[in-house]
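Continuing the series of single-chain predictions for the mutant panel. This is the parent chain; the variants come on the following pages.
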Amino acid sequence: MEGIMTYRDAGLSLDVIGALLQADGASAPVVLERHLQKVNEEITRLRQQQHVIAQLLGDAQAAKESFNDQGAVDCATRLHRIERRKNAKMACGIREDVA
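Parent structure:
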């Protein structure tokens, strides 16, 4: 029963768990690696959605907090903040080389 709960915690469906329990132990690593790849792809897709939503909201701080554990996105957030400052300066008639 503990094995079933652990597989469920890993996000495997009951069908997949049933097949794993009936198969030899050698198939578990293959199934788990495939599932891990799918989870990683889903995380990547969700991070991209987060980034787009943060950009749509125009809130660089929210973007930074959303992507705090992903350095590349933190860099993108900083660049976005710099771009917003430049746009604000231009709107106020402040030249970039003076400020």
